[in-house]
Design goal:
This protein is α+β, with helices and mostly antiparallel strands. The protein has 23 helices and 27 strands.
């Protein structure tokens, strides 16, 4: 029986050998190249700008598997794995025949215990094709596939595939994912003890899962044995002996970071076709944590005031990189809808768009920073804007109007814009989901539209970049982006939206906005670095904003509720600004606020400006200050408000001529009557020049000062009157006069029709036809316009 059994066994072995050999030859010659480099599913890893891990996503099959090229896998890992798994890897053809025969005999003939004989190549075949190698047919297929792989791939490619497919415990596959999870570092940074440990796991990933307490002691002892073998080949590494005795310290997948969650979520949703891989983002984790820390502390302190949520963003305007993004104060707080990204949500901007109205007005030559504007009640058709404090300050400089956020001057400037309006600017800046222009009207100046925080900081970055609009950058330039919608495709959206001069002057205006909260900080800020900033409060106190430029950054903070519910505490300067400056102080403490916006080559001139009038000073202006304007564009003239007049020493009245013995000289302010009225309404009393002596003749007074300016009727305008109301309706005549005017006399076609006191309209009952309307003040100064009156039935 024994010889017969030996013959039978010999026949089986020979048959199996020749069958396998024949199949191997056929497979080697005729099968196509298998793709072992890219499995069906990979994870995606996002890093900050300094290569700190922000998030590692599961692959589509719920495994952590991160593709790592062979040049990013340290030699220590490669050598340790080959030492433990396949010492003859570079010599064999994918199969170790001696080991295979020995394993076959021990496992299937002798049946004493199962013995493995899988080479690295065979393991790649099993892992890639998902074979069951515990049965003989599966083992045969594995052998054939190994030969096939060896034919088509180099040893380094096979080794690379192994290190990206090998199981490392739990749902972790590949050395790249294992290194990030277990040791919180990329594979290239693994040291020798870590490399040896990882090389042990794939042989039995369930029992040798380093997270299990039961496996750690086994791994420690097995690693010591492997290190002994290692020293036989690399004796210079004996200095690692002490480290090999230390307890194994690893982390679990539950310890993976989950940083900048709103930013990463948005990145993935906005660019769904990003292929799995590793991406270096624009986020600076240190700055991200800074925003998070201050936001949480601030909301905790102000919770009693009704503040429960905030969003913030920090953008480097020089690189346009979003370096920190905080969508909400707590991503995991469902009570505040914490997973909503407030940075990307549409909200009313309140007054934060006003700087761009002033920039456009500067560009159009309507104002310069010290131009006087009127903060007074004004009706624009059916729209009558009011100020937040329900008060009016009268004539103030454009800079004061902007930093004090006066509504009427901003609306009036927007109304006067003819070339490029605020709506046109928003369209050019790619503000999404805008309604038609007519939908907003003039309310656009006060936050009638909706913008995202990101859109807002990009507008402010445009000011910092001297009118050049650019898209944000969310991935570093050295990130490998395989995507038809490249997130770094910034150069497609670079536009000059405002002139460099207008942008710079607007920044200087914003820098006059004083800091809030701490006086000591305000002093420090003005001495060391400027902050170009603005607040905003939306209608019904739904949104509190603070946004501005400091150092190389644009910073924005928002306080409110994602539900849209308002609260009396949601006021920009009171709710958002303190957090804004708290973050700035922290940035400064780390030395991150450096530099100033001081461009060269701008068409801007610095001159002395009369502080009272905002114009170039005449010889009688009592106080001047330095001011900037754009030559050839800014509306600037020599002021004639301060005038020297002669006062009779006896009566105190105004004399027509200077006589040294009977008169004295005095300087008075001669304001137009509309501004005098506004000063009075604002509680500002202006000293009025005395009336002339009775002995002064019209010929003496009519040539001095300014003639009236007729504001109604308008010159060369046709007025239409209903025939049924011809006798009842009156057409108002009004004019702006010099300060010393008292009475206005109105004439129609040289016929006197009536007189009124200054600042009082005269109502004329119109007739049909064309008329010349003339006004003469009590000092003989006059003005005239032409008009037409038509009837309709």
């Amino acid at each position: 029986m024994l010889p017969s059994l030996n013959k039978k066994l010999s026949f089986i072995i020979k048959t199996a050998f020749f069958t396998t050999a024949l199949l191997a030859v056929l497979l080697y010659l005729f099968t196509p190249k298998p793709d072992i480099t890219q499995p069906n599913a990979y994870s995606t890893a996002f890093y900050d700008s300094s290569d700190k891990l922000l998030r590692l996503n599961l692959a589509a099959d719920d495994r952590y598997r991160l593709w790592t090229p062979i040049d990013k896998i340290p030699l220590s890992v490669q050598q340790a794995t080959l030492l433990y798994e396949d010492q003859d890897f570079y010599e064999h053809i994918g199969i170790d025949f001696i080991a295979l025969i020995n394993a076959f005999y021990t496992s299937y003939i002798k049946r004493s215990h199962r013995v493995g004989a899988s080479t690295i190549t065979m393991q790649v075949a099993r892992l890639h094709f998902g074979m069951n190698t515990h049965v003989i047919f599966g083992k045969v297929e594995q052998i054939l596939r190994a030969l096939q792989i060896e034919r088509h791939y180099s040893k380094n490619q096979i080794l690379e595939a192994y290190f990206n497919l090998a199981p490392y415990g739990s749902n972790i596959e590949g050395v790249g994912a294992a290194s990030l999870i277990y040791f919180k570092k990329p594979a290239i940074d693994l040291n020798l003890p870590e490399s040896l440990l990882l090389s042990l796991i794939p042989q039995n990933p369930t029992k040798r899962n380093p997270i299990k307490k039961s496996a750690k002691l086994v791994l420690l002892e097995t690693r010591k044995k492997l290190f002994t073998r290692w020293l036989e080949k690399y004796p210079d590494d004996k200095h690692w002996l002490a480290a090999m005795q230390l307890p194994i310290k690893v982390y679990a997948s539950s310890d993976l970071p989950f940083e900048a969650p709103h930013f990463i979520d948005n990145l993935q949703s906005e660019y769904p076709h990003l292929k799995p891989g590793e991406y270096k983002t624009s986020i600076d984790l240190n700055l991200q944590n800074l925003l998070q820390r201050h936001a949480r502390n601030y909301i905790n302190r102000r919770h009693r005031d009704g503040l429960s949520n905030t969003s913030a963003i920090l953008l480097n305007y020089k690189t346009m990189e979003v370096v920190a993004e905080l969508g909400s104060v707590d991503f995991f707080n469902n009570d505040i809808s914490g997973q909503v990204n407030g940075v990307r949500a549409k909200r009313s901007p309140g007054s934060t768009l006003k700087p761009f109205i002033y920039a456009l007005a500067i560009d159009e030559g309507l104002i310069h920073p010290l131009t006087l504007v009127k903060d007074a009640p004004k009706r624009f058709g059916g729209y009558t804007p009011e100020n937040y404090d329900q008060q009016f300050l009268g004539p103030i400089s454009a800079t004061e109007s902007l930093v004090l956020s006066r509504n009427v001057p901003a609306v009036n400037l927007m109304y006067r814009l003819q070339k490029v309006g605020l709506y046109d600017l928003l369209v050019a800046a790619d503000i999404k989901k805008l309604q038609p222009k007519e939908f907003y009207g003039l309310a656009l100046a006060l936050g009638g539209s909706e913008v995202t925080m990101l859109e807002l900081v990009k507008l402010y970055a445009m000011l910092a970049n001297l009118g050049v609009y650019k898209d944000e950058v969310i991935l570093k330039k050295d990130a490998t982006v395989i995507n038809e919608n490249n997130p770094n495709n910034q150069n497609n959206h670079i536009k000059q939206l405002i002139s460099p001069e207008a942008a710079y002057l607007t920044l200087q205006m914003l820098s006059e906005n004083s800091a809030v909260d701490e006086i000591s900080f305000q002093k420090e800020r003005r001495q060391s670095y400027p902050v170009y900033w603005k607040t905003g409060t939306s209608f019904a106190f739904r949104d509190a904003w603070s946004v501005g430029i400091v150092g190389p950054y644009v910073l924005a903070t928002w306080v409110g509720n994602f539900s849209g519910e308002g609260h009396p505490s949601f006021i920009g300067r009171q709710a958002a600004a303190p957090l804004f400056f708290e973050i700035i102080r922290s940035l400064d403490s780390y030395g991150l606020i450096k530099g100033n916006i001081k461009p060269g080559g701008l068409n801007i001139t610095e001159v002395d400006i009369c502080s009272t009038t905002g114009d170039l000073p005449n010889v009688h202006c009592p106080k001047t200050e330095k001011g900037l304007f754009i030559p050839g564009k800014s509306p600037i003239k020599v002021s004639d408000v301060h005038r020297e007049i002669y006062i009779d020493k006896v009566s105190g009245l105004r004399a027509c001529q200077y006589v040294e013995s009977t008169t004295t000289k005095a300087v008075y302010e001669f304001w137009p009557s509309d501004l005098v009225r506004l000063f009075k309404q604002a509680g500002i009393v202006k000293r009025q020049p005395p009336p002339y002596l009775d002995s002064c003749l019209i010929n003496d007074t009519s040539t001095r000062g300014s003639a009236p300016s007729i504001t109604s009727p308008s010159n060369l305008i046709s007025y239409t009157i209903r025939a049924s109301k011809l006798k009842q309706e009156g057409l108002p005549f009004s004019a702006i006069t010099d300060t010393d005017s008292r009475i206005l006399y109105w004439f129609v076609d040289n016929s006197f029709v009536g007189k009124v006191e200054r600042d009082t309209p005269f109502f004329w009952h119109p007739q049909v036809g064309e008329f010349d309307v003339r006004v003469v003040d009590n000092l003989g100064r006059s003005a005239s316009v032409s008009m037409r009156v038509k009837l309709v039935q």
